Amino acid sequence: MLSELVRFDLTGSTPGLIALGIFVFAYLLVVFEERLHMRKSKPVVFAAGVIWLLVAIAYGSHPESGELAANHMETRVLHHTGEYGALFLFLMVAMTYISAIAHHNVFLWINGWLVSRGFSLRTVFWVTGLLSFLISPIADNLTTALLMGTVVVAVGKGNTKFISAACVNVVVAANAGGAFSPFGDITTLMVWAKGKVHTELFFTLVLPSLVNWLIPAAIMHFMVPKGQPEPMTKEVELKQGWQVVVGLFLATIATAVTFHAVFHLSPFLGMTTGLGYYMIYAWFRNLRHRRKGDRDPVEFLDNVAEVEWDTMLFFFGVIMCVGGLQELTYLQAASEWMFDPEQGIGPDAANVAIGVLSAIIDNVPVMFAVLGMDPSMDIANQVVPGVAGSGLHTPMADFQWLLITLTAGTGGSLLSVGSAAGVALMGTAHGYYTFGRHMKFLPAIAAGYCGGILLHYLLNYPDVPA
């Protein structure tokens, strides 16, 4: 196992410093994606390969490594690749179903329903935000953002001011809603899967998460145009089989939850099993089409092809980059500096700072890095003497794990690249929702971030008398 492999303190080595510099530079290219017209996946995928090459060089040239550490390089790579693979399969199935539901005109119908109800743009802003907050705990924040983002773009019909504000609202609401559910965000899923927080304790974050969304939404309300959506030119008809596809998607989510909660299997296995539901349904429907011709054919591979592959490759690059930095022991050094109350800033300040950091690096790899640090255990047993982090004994209480779950989940809303929801929505609303336009609402989002943390302390801090 990876925990049994020897790691040397390579933070001050030449390959280690170069690797850190490459990661910082690659992420700067991601931040300036809009100006450079370079897709966000390109710099991080390239950086991942270079960083791992430097890891191999660093271990191969270490005087004490020999065959003990250097020959386990493939095991190290496969461990981090497995972490990404589970995430990839989970998201791929979710995005495939979103594509299938869109092909059945469900999102266009929702758009038509919103318009036909006579809602103003500001009302649509609040309705899509509320739905995002309520749906994300069940369907996860990424899926919810993709769904509501599609509705926002359809309603806005080129109204950049409305679409950008509504997309920011959807991202904030989806991330906030996902923060209090084990299945609402990939970060909460990772914390829950590692057994750091019991299921029922997540729901103590409901009110702090709600405040996290309501404060920026109330501020942004006045920045949304007052007009009405452009009327529908024609009535949208739902295609045959839409109920089945939506039902299969819900069944897929239920399967993933059951696999994990009951059988202790990785949720991605439940999702891929659910993809099998859709594949079998497509086969039966195509068979009926050939025999009777009364049903349109379904080509599920067309839906797979519409997955946001730039997002998938972006996650691969970031997770592998962070994994390489972990092998160089930068995460252990960061753990000592952040979580040790005697040598660092302590868990309270560290967990709040990690939320801000998740906005820059994306909350998924940040939480992946924190779990790699594992501040709740003695990491001196995992590294050789002298490594950064040796001798750290700082167990984190439930309150702290809940705090980092809240901050990592909602802190990702501070920037568009800080969460899976924001990254995916930049693809769905390409040209309307961008890094720069998200930045315009940063003060409002930051106010909500601080408000949610404050309420968490008031409600859940164990030392505060009732």
Shape: globular
> Hey, roughly how much beta strand do the residues contain?
under 5%
Number of domains: 1
Number of strands: 0
Largest sheet report: none
Label the structural class.
mainly alpha
- Identify low-pLDDT runs: 377-394
Individual helix count: 22
CA-atom Rg in angstroms: 23 Å
* Ends distance: 45 Å
Structure description:
This protein has 466 residues and is mainly alpha-helical. The protein has one domain (2-460). The protein is built from 22 helices and no strands. The protein has helices at 14-31, 33-36, 41-61, 66-70, 73-103, 106-116, 121-139, 141-156, 160-178, 186-193, 206-220, 242-261, 267-291, 300-305, 309-327, 330-339, 347-361, 363-373, 398-411, 420-428, 435-439, 442-460. The radius of gyration is 23 Å and the shape is globular.
Short précis:
With 466 residues, the protein is mainly alpha-helical. Helix content is 69%, strand content 0%.
Give the topology, please.
Elements: H1 14-31, H2 33-36, H3 41-61, H4 66-70, H5 73-103, H6 106-116, H7 121-139, H8 141-156, H9 160-178, H10 186-193, H11 206-220, H12 242-261, H13 267-291, H14 300-305, H15 309-327, H16 330-339, H17 347-361, H18 363-373, H19 398-411, H20 420-428, H21 435-439, H22 442-460
